[in-house]
């Protein structure tokens, strides 16, 4: 994986150490869009004492910790109306390549925390308003004691190789002739490796062996963690399920279809395969 971990520069925390902050980074979202400052065609995260300086009152905000010593907050904004000049709301995914990579990754974290905070205001078991658990990114129910943590849904994504060829599939949901790796969500009680085998069997009817971990990537659209794998073809012929996957095939590095964006681990695995020249 080419990307450096943001944790070299970032110290997560739930509670600010001091109230006497100067400027802070504001990762402010309205639905799926993040508030960014646009200046001469370049994009940046609002960096100021308080969003109220722009007459924006967040519905709720969460402390995220320090990035290079600067405090960071996520905030939920109710409406995109009355945004000051020079500020824009842009879908999070579209900001890949437009802002600094550390800030982009932290924005993904901010987004997931906002969604979790927003959807866990009440206990999922008894409906009582929840309370923040001090010092932890968690909420507890004062009535029944249920504790909830930010929800993260693991999914696997696998590059299957047969000789020098790679298995790529076109899902019904994909645009144009875009092809990607086979992926799917983990089921309760399943190991990641079992999930790899099951998803590939279900979607394209192929049996695989020699499953190896490649790397992982948070995928905040809205709350997944993608675990990337490679595997070798063992047996079977491609039979697409027809519901999720429309077509699939074995491709050589010199003859690839339209590939997913650089933002995804899928593309990172495919690029690794191309560079390594199997
Ligand atoms: Zn409860």
From TrEMBL:
KW NAD (keyword) present: yes
Keywords: Hydrolase, Magnesium, Metal-binding, NAD
Pfam families: NUDIX, NUDIX-like, Zn_ribbon_NUD
Residues covered by the Nudix hydrolase domain: 151-275
CDD domains recorded: NUDIX_NADH_pyrophosphatase_Nudt13
GO molecular function, one term: hydrolase activity
EC number: 3.6.1.22
UniProt entry tagged with the keyword Magnesium: yes
Cofactors demanded by this protein: Mg(2+)
Protein name: NAD(+) diphosphatase
Species for this entry: Ruminiclostridium sufflavum DSM 19573
Taxonomy of the source species: Bacteria, Bacillati, Bacillota, Clostridia, Eubacteriales
